[in-house]
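Data availability (excerpt). The following record was deposited with the supplementary files.
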Amino acid sequence: QDMTPHEFEHLLVQKGFPALPVEAITRLFEQVRYGGIQPDEKGIHTAILSLNAIVDHCQAIKPQQVAQ
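Predicted structure:
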């Protein structure tokens, strides 16, 4: 199914992913992909922190929760 980045962001937050990191990484993606804006040091740092928070969340999910 096709989905916009914003729709995907909304789905992840509904599924319990941390809202602020998901929103931050989505905004950065949209700026680069659709705005042609290259991230500065702050943007890169935000991306790394956001991805780490998302990975931490994924690692904390029990296998049976993923199947639901």
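Summary of structural features: The first helix runs from residue 5 to 14.
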